[in-house]
Amino acid sequence: QKPVERSTLFAVLRRNLSASAARVLIVDDSPDARALLEELVGPLAADVRTAANGQDALRVLRDFHPDVVLLDRLMPVMDGLAFLEVFRSEPHFQHVPVIVVTARELTGEERERVARHTAAVMKKGNALEPDLKRTLASVLHPGAAVDEERT
To answer: What's the predicted TM-score (pTM) here?
Structure first.
């Protein structure tokens, strides 16, 4: 029904237009972390691009429009928080889910800033794989769990 909330419309379109695989941008300064994240999202992704810092990610975004961004917090050149500010200032990226994947505990101020711009914050470590897969499923296909429960 009209009027339609923009976030609801995007969620429905995302769920129906990208039902099987997504475009993912991984931003992390560690080559090992990028490789691990790429391996974890591989089965869910149609196209995965990587960047070593926020500035590299902005270059990638010139010709790549991800369905989700996996973002490290601490990186040289441009860190995750600086990237988020620029990323969210672009109208066509305002509704793209961002998942922060970090090894470091965030300060209260960082948590506040990150909460305004991201879908989730995840800790690197042993529980990353199941947490990441669950979180990706929920942000890429928000109605899927509800739909599966009804069937």
So the answer is: 0.77
